[in-house]
Design brief:
The complex is a heterodimer of chains A (about 350) and B (about 180).
Chain A: H1 2-35, H2 51-61, H3 72-88, E1 98-101, E2 104-108, H4 117-127, H5 129-138, H6 142-173, H7 178-185, H8 200-215, H9 227-230, H10 240-265, H11 279-301, H12 309-337
Antiparallel strand pairs in A: 1-2
Helix pairs in contact in A: 1-10, 1-11, 2-10, 3-4, 3-5, 3-10, 5-6, 6-8, 6-12, 8-10, 8-12, 10-11
Chain B: H1 2-22, H2 26-46, H3 50-74, H4 80-87, H5 92-115, H6 134-143, H7 147-184
The chains are: A mainly alpha (about 350), B mainly alpha (about 180).
Chain lengths: ~350, ~180
C-alpha cells in the first residue's frame, strides 16, 4: 500500500514539475510579448495554450545533428546531466503537511522526508553544472567551449553564496529538514516566516533570489548562452530533443529553485492566519508563492540587460559572498540574543 | 534489496575507478572519477551516513571535479586519441608500477581490516544501532571533543588559500608593475 502511495505521489509531483516546465515555456513567450506590446503565440489551441505541446512534437521530429569531431558519448551525456539532477531535487520539497485524499492517508505531501533535505537539493543542483560544461566541451566548437567554461566558473562561484544564504535559514530554524524548516514558520502568524526576521531575513531573501538567477543561468546572468558573443553558448551545436532537454533542465531548475525559496523564506505551505489549513489550501498557497518567484524569473529576464562577465564575477566574489558571510554572522547574533 | 544496492554501488565505484586509469581521454577520466565518487556516496548512504553522502556529492562532485574539468579543458593537450596512439595509453613500465602500488596498498588495507576488532559488516554494510541522527551526531562531535582539531584544520586551509593567492598575484603583477615604473621613470 505504501508503495502505491509513493507511486501516486511521484506521478503527481513529477507530473506537476514537468507541467510547470512546459507552462513556463509558454508563459515566457506570452509575458515577454505582453511586455513588448505584442500578442505572442496564439495559433495553437485556445489562446495559444497548446503551444508547448506543439513545440514538443516539433522537437521530436527535428533532425538530430551531431557535429563532426564531437566526442559522441560525452555529447550525449551533456543534456542528460543538465536535466536529470534538476528533476531529482524536487523529491524533497514538501508541498503540504498531513494529507488525506478520499480517506487515504498520504502523510507528508513530498516524495521523501530526508533529514538532510536542504543539503540534498544543494548537492544535486551542484551536479547540474556538468550539463553545460560537458555539452560545451564535447561539441568541439569554440563558442560552445567558452559557454561551458563560463557556466562552470559562474555556477561554482555563486554556489558558495547560495549555500551560505541557505545556511542562515538552517541556523534560524535549527534543522536541515525542509519539513521542519516549514513547520518552524507555520505558526498561523505570517510574521514568523523567515523573510520577516529583521534584517537577516530580508538580506537573505534578496541574496538568495539573485543567486538562484545565477545558478540557473538566467538573465541577467546567462553568460553560458550569451547570444551576441557566443552564438548560443554551450548548446550552439545541439538540435532536436537534446536541445529540448537543456531547456527542460533549465525550467525544472527554475521551478525547484522557486519552490526552495518559498520553503526557506516564505514559510512553504503555511497559510497566513490558518495554522491547520486543509492540504488543498496548503498546496494552493505553496503554488501561489512559487508562481510569484517563477514570474519574477520572466519579469527580470525581459526587463534587465545582461551583465558583463567581469562584473558578474566581481559581484559574486566581492559583494555577495562577503554579505552572505556577514548575514550568517548576524543570524548567529540574532539567535543567541533571542 | 540493500545487499544488492551495496554490490551495485561498490561495483560501479570500482569499475569507474578502473575507467579513470584506463580511458585515453582526460575528460572521460574525470567523468569516471565522478561516477566513482557517486558510487562511494551511495555506500555512505546505505551505511546510514546521509550527511557524509551529501557532502561527498556536494564537495567532490559539485566543486572539485568541476575544477578538474575546468583545468583539463583549459590545458589543451591536443587530440587525446592522437596522443594515445603516439604514447600508448598504458606503457609496460607504467602498468608495472601502477599494479605494484595498487597491489601493495590493497595488501596493507587487507592486513589492517583483518587484524582490527571493528564489528564486521554483514553483507558489506553496517546499520547504526537504533538509528543515528546524521547531522546532530556529526555536529556534536565536530564542535565538542574535536573542536580544536577541526578549527585548526580550517585555519590551515585558510593559510593555504591566502598563500596560493599571494603567490599567483605576485607572479602576475610583477611585469606590469615593472613596466609602470619604467614609464614613470
Amino acid at each position: 500500500m505504501s508503495f502505491v502511495i509513493i507511486l501516486i505521489k511521484g506521478a503527481l509531483i513529477y507530473g506537476g514539475l514537468l507541467g510547470t516546465a512546459a507552462a513556463m515555456t509558454l508563459a515566457e513567450r506570452k509575458v515577454s510579448a505582453w511586455m513588448q506590446l505584442r500578442i505572442g503565440p496564439n495559433r495553437v489551441g485556445p489562446g495559444g495554450l497548446l503551444q508547448p505541446l506543439a513545440d514538443g512534437i516539433k522537437f521530436i521530429f527535428k533532425e538530430e545533428v551531431t557535429p563532426d569531431g564531437a566526442n559522441k558519448g560525452i555529447f550525449r551525456l551533456g543534456p542528460i546531466m543538465a536535466a536529470v539532477p534538476a528533476m531529482l531535487t524536487i523529491a524533497v520539497i514538501p508541498f503540504a503537511g498531513e494529507t488525506t485524499i478520499f480517506g487515504i492517508d498520504f502523510g507528508l505531501l513530498s516524495l521523501t522526508d530526508l533529514d538532510i533535505g536542504l543539503l540534498f537539493v544543494l548537492a544535486l543542483s551542484g551536479l547540474s553544472v556538468y550539463g553545460g560544461i560537458l555539452g560545451g566541451w564535447a561539441s568541439n566548437s569554440k563558442y560552445s567551449l567558452l559557454g561551458g567554461l563560463r557556466a562552470s566558473a559562474q555556477m561554482v562561484s555563486y554556489e558558495l553564496s547560495l549555500i551560505m544564504t541557505a545556511l542562515t535559514v538552517v541556523a534560524l530554524s535549527g534543522s536541515m529538514n525542509l519539513r521542519e524548516i516549514v513547520e518552524v514558520q507555520n505558526t498561523g502568524n505570517f510574521l514568523d516566516w523567515h523573510c520577516f526576521t529583521p534584517v537577516v531575513g530580508q538580506v537573505g531573501l534578496i541574496l538568495f533570489v539573485i543567486t538562484t538567477f545565477a545558478e540557473t543561468n538566467r538573465h541577467p546572468f546567462d553568460f553560458a548562452e550569451c547570444e551576441p558573443e557566443l552564438v548560443g553558448g554551450f548548446h550552439t551545436e545541439y538540435s532536436s530533443m537534446k536541445f529540448a532537454l537543456f531547456f527542460l533542465g533549465e525550467y525544472c531548475a527554475m521551478t525547484v529553485m522557486a519552490c526552495l525559496t518559498t520553503v526557506l523564506f516564505l514559510g512553504g505551505y503555511s497559510v497566513p492566519f490558518w495554522e491547520d489549513a486543509p492540504w488543498i489550501v496548503q498546496v494552493g498557497t505553496f503554488m501561489t508563492k512559487t508562481a510569484f518567484f517563477l514570474f519574477l524569473f520572466i519579469w527580470v529576464r525581459w526587463t534587465l540587460p545582461r551583465f558583463r562577465y567581469d562584473q558578474l564575477m566581481n559581484l559574486g566574489w566581492k559583494v555577495f559572498f562577503p554579505i552572505a558571510l556577514a548575514n550568517l554572522l548576524l543570524a548567529g547574533a540574532v539567535i543567541s540574543l533571542s | 534489496m540493500v545487499d544488492l544496492l551495496f554490490y551495485v554501488a561498490a561495483g560501479v565505484s570500482v569499475l569507474c575507478a578502473l575507467g579513470v586509469v584506463v580511458s585515453a581521454n582526460p575528460v572521460q577520466s574525470v567523468m569516471m572519477l565522478l561516477g566513482s565518487f557517486v558510487g562511494i556516496a551511495l555506500i555512505y548512504l546505505l551505511a546510514g551516513f546521509q550527511f557524509l553522502a551529501a557532502i561527498q556529492i556536494l564537495v567532490y562532485g559539485g566543486a572539485i571535479m568541476v575544477l578538474f574539468l575546468f583545468v583539463v579543458m583549459l590545458l589543451n593537450q591536443g587530440d587525446p586519441v592522437v596522443l594515445a596512439r603516439e604514447q600508448g595509453v598504458l606503457r609496460k613500465e607504467q602498468l608495472a608500477v601502477g599494479l605494484a602500488v595498487a597491489g601493495s596498498a590493497l595488501a596493507v588495507l587487507l592486513v589492517a581490516v583483518v587484524r582490527t576488532d571493528l564489528p564486521r559488516p554483514i553483507f558489506g554494510y553496517l546499520w547504526p544501532e537504533g538509528g543515528l541522527d546524521p547531522l546532530l551526531g556529526m555536529a556534536q562531535a565536530m564542535f565538542g571533543p574535536y573542536v580544536l582539531a577541526f578549527e585548526g584544520a580550517s585555519v590551515l586551509l585558510l593559510a593555504t588559500a591566502v598563500g596560493v593567492m599571494t603567490l599567483a598575484k605576485r607572479q602576475r603583477s610583477t611585469p606590469v608593475a615593472a613596466a609602470n615604473e619604467e614609464v614613470s621613470a
